[in-house]
Amino acid sequence: MVAPPAVDPLPPRTSGLPGVGSGLSLLRDPSGFLRRQRESLGDTFLVDAFGYRLLFVFSPEGLRRFYELPEEEASFGLATYTFVFKHKVPLELVLGRRNRPHDLFGGSDVEFYLDALESSVGAELDALGAGGRFEIFAFARRLGHRLGLACWAGTEAASPPALDRLIPLLDRLDSSDSFVRPLSTFASLASKKWRERRAMRGVEQIFAEILRQRGAAGAERGGSGAPGDFLDTIHASYADLPPGEREVHSARDVMVLHMGAQSNLYAALGWTLVNLLLHPALLDRVRKGDSDLLERCASESIRMAQRSLTLRQVLAPLEFDAGGQKFTLAPGVLIATMLSLTNRSAAPGLDRFDPDHYAGRRLAADVALPARELVSTFGHGRHSCPAQRFAISAIRVAVLRLLERFELEPLFADAEPRRRQIGGVARSARPCRVAYRARI
């Protein structure tokens, strides 16, 4: 048996059988398990699970240092691959990518997506008809696919029939399964990810068809045929590759961008709508056009629903100050924190939903925290989510247009997060159904 990477001195460790025992407890109820360990062991403790050594930190000083760590010393990217992509996504999908989320969401680019957001939401609401019922998170998931594809994959991908072909394939590839249903990743590993590879090839085929059609249309007009959207930019970045290979890599860039941007967007949209429906006075103000309140409700919904297991993988020996005690960490140690343990408890009142906890998209100044890193929605520092502006804009457009067109009646009295989730924005433990009818 390979010895785990060293932590010196050893902090308190979880009791019972190390490895599988702690790992199963962690997967069955991550937030509950870590909360109990924190109550018993303090703000810094060690968990050995499934061959990984995780040093959990929750103190203000420890979290401040956690978010300050340079990528070359403790890698966010490698830790994310290890825990999110490695167990679910085919390796060939993530290798050789040329277009990253920061390219997609950098600068003022989000403003160019507003037309795509509006048209996508309009088309999806048209499909609802005059009345009926829908489940909030299922509706939000389909809408999230359509919104995302419209923005970075073009009109063709975001419209039937391509959209209806793409959604089940993208759902099969969805890397968020690694943290929403962590036990399901064992099935992917056992099958050597053949279902995921089959889905990947299906998406590649659809985008090859779209790009060929664009090329043919351009040839007829004597031009490129490309509409100048982000898919065109992606395709142009692979101009040095031969036909066939170029389309494959273009499609893979779209898949990775889509998985990253969509892993939490639809859940954030779903919880925003759930919380508004459970607070009719807030819903009425939003329906009357209070978009600032809507954005604060979205931020508050994300804060309360956060279940992110946030990680840094140590690359070179380093000294880590966890707040009151310093540890020497060997390469391979994963420094970790769990947002669900601090987001709702770091200050009085954070255990309840209240959009006044936010001023714009930032935590309000009167929410007194020992360290701002104790509460997180989109992360802190250099690894903050680059899609924040896009996500809030998408939620704002979707919710406002939905409330303008329909009267909504919640068919649920409350909603709780999925207990086994070990990362990202929570999915609901139970369906949240809504009856709707067109407003006169």
Task: Write structural notes for this entry.
Helix 1 packs across helix 2 (30-41), helix 15 (245-277) crosses helix 17 and helix 17 (291-305) packs across helix 18. The longest helix has 33 residues, at 245-277. The radius of gyration is 22 Å and the shape is globular. It starts with 6 loop residues before the first strand and ends with a strand. The protein has one domain (88-306, 343-438): Cytochrome p450, CATH 1.10.630.10. It is an alpha+beta fold and 440 residues long. It has a five-stranded mixed β-sheet. It has a three-stranded antiparallel β-sheet with strand order 1-8-7. Strands 5-13-12 form a three-stranded antiparallel β-sheet. It contains 18 helices and 13 strands. The model has no long low-confidence stretch (mean pLDDT 90). The chain has helices at residues 20-28, 30-41, 60-68, 76-85, 91-94, 101-105, 109-112, 114-128, 136-152, 162-173, 177-180, 185-190, 194-221, 230-236, 245-277, 280-287, 291-305, 388-405, and strands spanning 7-8, 44-49, 52-57, 74-75, 131-135, 309-314, 318-321, 326-329, 334-338, 358-359, 362-363, 406-410, 433-438. A hairpin with a 4-residue loop joins strand 7 (318-321) and strand 8.
